Amino acid sequence: MSLLKAAIIGGGNIADTNHIPALNQLSDQVEVVAVCSRDLTKARALANKHGIANAFSDTGELYSQCAPDVVVICTPNNLHYPQTMEALTHNCHVLCEKPPAIHAQNAREMAELAAQKGLVLAYNFQLRQTSEWALLTRCKDDGLLGEIYHIKAHFLRRRGIPGWGYFTNKAMQGGGALMDLGVHVLDLALCALGYPTPDQVLGNTYDFIGKAGGKGLLGAWNPATFEVEDAATAYISFPNKASIILSASFALNTQVDKDRNLELFGSKGGVKLFPFSLHTEMAGELADVQFPYLEEVDIQLKNTAAFLDACNGKPSNVCTAEQGAILQEIIERIYQSASA
Fold first, then answer.
1. Mean pLDDT in the chain?
2. Could you tell me the pLDDT band of residue 1, with boundaries at 50, 70 and 90?
3. What is the pLDDT of residue 104?
């Protein structure tokens, strides 16, 4: 099997520390042939650092000169839609950073074009690759949970407003904590339910701390230019009466600096995901089962490998284009509910 040719669009930290190292570890399947960034100096520096042959500031030149098979998009959220559509138009499989887009209609169009062309469009929700998630999947398949009917999902930071990049710029990011953090645990919750479409979405967003300023644990931010939500909550229900309670924050007056978890409640058993514990009945008694020896894995490497599996027609658990479109619609409905 010949190597797939990969191109990176975006010259920032996520490309440098996540995607390029993962692709390089899969050199038996793929070769990174180019980096493209609006800043050519940055693109050249990143290419030189990782031994990549080509650097561009124009995607047209990238496609005409390198003809990649796969494209990894690592740019601000407002660029995901046009850059994905361009890559698909050039018959490339695409792994796009989360969230899929800013608007639900954009994510739907991306999914439709990928389907029309028979190409893989996937999103980088790498928490699907944790050992805890793999164990949860096995528990579900073994019938230990029964029917999952309620999930509590949260990704909270106490004072984690990023002091760098574009995270507080609404035009570029589309939103704040919900768009950046909440999408990760929402993806897992939807996976656990089979990725259904909800019939009711209620949401609220807040910006008290972001606009007031204060002590930051991820650098200093400017409250005068803070345009997104620092916290969001949502209640999501489905036609079968299953439900999700979702919360996400960049800044929240809570005890711990960072708290990311899911609790899943089923008719036979429940699970707390991190660290993994199973809550059920055994031999006529209530039981809490711990799993202290789960393997720590490189979730970016595994998610990149899952994407390449999908490109090669193999079974894969990577987030699909259709799932991304469903998730983006829910995010949009949360924001719409919050602004009503």
1. 97
2. low
3. 98
Domain annotation covers residue 89: yes
pLDDT per residue over 101-111, tens digit each? Answer: 999 999 999 99
Residue 14: predicted pLDDT: 96
The domain that holds 118 is classified in CATH as: 3.40.50.720
* Domains: count for the chain: 2
- Specify the length of the chain in residues: 340
Dihedral (CA of 174, 178, 181, 182) sign? negative
CATH of the domain at 207: 3.30.360.10
> Beta strands of the chain (E only): which ranges?
4-9, 30-36, 54-56, 70-73, 93-96, 121-123, 148-157, 200-206, 231-237, 243-249, 258-266, 270-272, 277-282, 285-290, 319-320
The count of other CB atoms within 10 Å of the CB of residue 164 is 11
pTM for this model (two decimals): 0.97
Q: Which domain holds residue 173?
A: 131-297+320-339
